[in-house]
């Protein structure tokens, strides 16, 4: 007796194809193309807009020019684009150390003469400082400038023996030298 095994017909495999769009391209491509177009348009607008013209020119002088820990004065001049002094503004100076964790030094500047403002503050530590100057003009426009002050030295640096009174030197001369064993 001959027994034949039932022959199975292979099932057709399910093939998933993305639904074609009107151009015959998968739907993901148009979405990608649209996002790339928006990105390109945004970059073009950002590049063409350029930087805004500042509301005023701010020039400054720091006294002393190579500061040490202690008092300092920042004198600022505010002028419009035509070079005329801008009077009646509010100017604030914030001093920050270049490393995090330090409390900023804040000073409000007073107008000395029309368009000239002066702020006195204290460098509290040696190191690199950044002074952030923000001025609000009478019409509400703002001017901001960042001033880097590298290498504020400690107040004892640069002192020469001639800076000490002779009496202090005599006291120092009497201190016996100590040997460490």
Task: Please report the number of helical segments.
Answer: 2
Q: Portion of residues in helices?
A: 10-25%
* Strand order in space, largest sheet: 1-2-5-4-3-6-7
Q: At the first level of CATH, what is the class of the domain at 57-152?
A: Mainly Beta
Proportion of residues in β-strands = 25-35%
CATH architecture of the domain at 57-152: Sandwich
At the fold tier of CATH, the topology name of the domain at 57-152 is Immunoglobulin-like
Commentary on this structure:
A seven-stranded antiparallel β-sheet has the order 1-2-5-4-3-6-7, with no helix packed on it. It has helices at residues 28-49, 166-174, and strands spanning 57-63, 70-79, 90-97, 105-113, 116-123, 127-136, 142-152. It has a domain at 57-152: Immunoglobulin-like (Sandwich), CATH 2.60.40.1080. It has two helices and seven strands, in the order αβββββββα. By secondary structure, it is of the alpha+beta class. It is elongated, with a radius of gyration of 36 Å. The model is unreliable at 43-50 and 159-181 (pLDDT under 50). It is 17% helix and 35% strand.
Note the main attributes of this structure.
2 helices, seven-stranded antiparallel sheet, alpha+beta, single chain, elongated, Immunoglobulin-like, disordered C terminus, 181 residues
List the helices and strands and how they pair.
Blueprint: H1 28-49, E1 57-63, E2 70-79, E3 90-97, E4 105-113, E5 116-123, E6 127-136, E7 142-152, H2 166-174
Antiparallel strand pairs: 1-2, 2-5, 3-4, 3-6, 4-5, 6-7
């Amino acid at each position: 007796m001959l027994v034949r095994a039932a022959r199975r017909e292979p099932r057709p495999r399910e093939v998933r194809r993305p639904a074609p769009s009107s151009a015959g391209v998968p739907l993901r491509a148009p979405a990608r193309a649209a996002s790339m177009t928006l990105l390109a348009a945004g970059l073009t607008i950002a590049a063409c807009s350029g930087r805004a013209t500042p509301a005023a020119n701010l020039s400054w002088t720091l006294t002393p020019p190579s500061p040490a820990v202690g008092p300092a004065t920042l004198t600022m001049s505010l002028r419009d684009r035509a070079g005329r002094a801008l009077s009646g503004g509010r100017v604030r100076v914030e001093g920050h150390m270049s490393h995090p964790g330090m409390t900023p030094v804040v000073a409000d500047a007073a107008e000395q003469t029309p368009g000239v403002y002066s702020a006195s503050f204290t460098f509290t530590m040696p190191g690199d400082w950044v002074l952030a100057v923000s001025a609000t003009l009478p019409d509400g426009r703002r001017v901001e400038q960042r001033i880097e002050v590298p290498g504020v030295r400690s107040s004892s640096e640069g002192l020469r023996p001639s800076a000490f009174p002779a009496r202090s030197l005599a006291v120092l001369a009497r201190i016996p030298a100590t040997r460490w064993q």
